[in-house]
Design brief:
2 domains; 6 strands; alpha+beta; Arc Repressor Mutant, subunit A
Length: about 210
């Protein structure tokens, strides 16, 4: 197994001030030296020119491989510092995936802030439905076949909805199973709720959904 230290030895060190290539440019012209597919639509690729491309849930981010050193991990308000040498002997993709997830998370947060929408809105999306004590998935399951409900969602959305609502798992547990961050799970659920809202709008004669955000 190629380690991160070995990967850094066979890839170029990127220079400061040089414009970072786009994900498309890397895929089309870059020479990949290592690739790891994690799950479904999630993978990480390292290129000879010293850049890594991380793709998850339809989104991609590019970053310098050699810039991935120590890592500060925060869980439940507790910070853990992992020094650079901790990752040196680990499989090459471990540290890069952490970097990729963090960058996608920051990008998503920035986009949501621009739209003045926060992740907390997910609770509103799922709460406002016919009976205020029911979430939309519970409401729909009582009236429609589960397979039909999930059919209108993307594969990633189906996975998140199944874990969080049908299997009653927490966002954190779902994030671990999907290999993504908890905020990313919330974002996916938000997208799923909006898609269901469009599929079953308020006032529809079938009364599948009687209210929506």
């Amino acid at each position: 197994m190629l380690t991160l230290q070995e990967l850094k030895e066979i890839t170029e060190t990127t220079k400061h001030g040089i414009k970072m290539p786009t994900a498309r440019n890397l895929r089309e012209t870059g020479r990949a030296v290592a690739e790891k597919r994690l799950k479904n639509d999630t993978w990480i690729t390292a290129y000879q020119n010293g850049y890594a491309l991380y793709h998850a849930s339809g989104h991609s981010t590019v970053f310098p491989i050699h810039a991935c050193g120590a890592y500060l991990y925060v869980s439940n308000g507790v910070s853990s510092y992992l020094p650079e040498h901790f990752f040196g002997k680990e499989p090459w993709y471990v540290r890069l995936v952490l970097e990729g997830e963090d960058r996608l998370d920051r990008n998503q947060r920035a986009k949501e802030q621009e739209r003045t929408v926060s992740y907390s809105a997910i609770s509103e999306e799922w709460e406002v439905i016919g009976n205020a004590e029911e979430n939309p998935l519970e409401y729909l399951v009582h009236r429609e076949n589960r397979k039909e409900i999930l059919h209108c969602l993307t594969e990633r959305q189906r996975e998140a909805v199944s874990l969080c609502f049908f299997q009653q798992k927490s966002r954190k547990e779902a994030a671990r199973e999907l290999g993504i961050s908890s905020p990313a799970v919330s974002a996916i659920l938000l997208q799923a709720a909006r898609r269901l809202r469009k599929k079953y709008p308020s006032g529809d004669q079938t009364e599948k959904v009687v209210a929506a955000v």
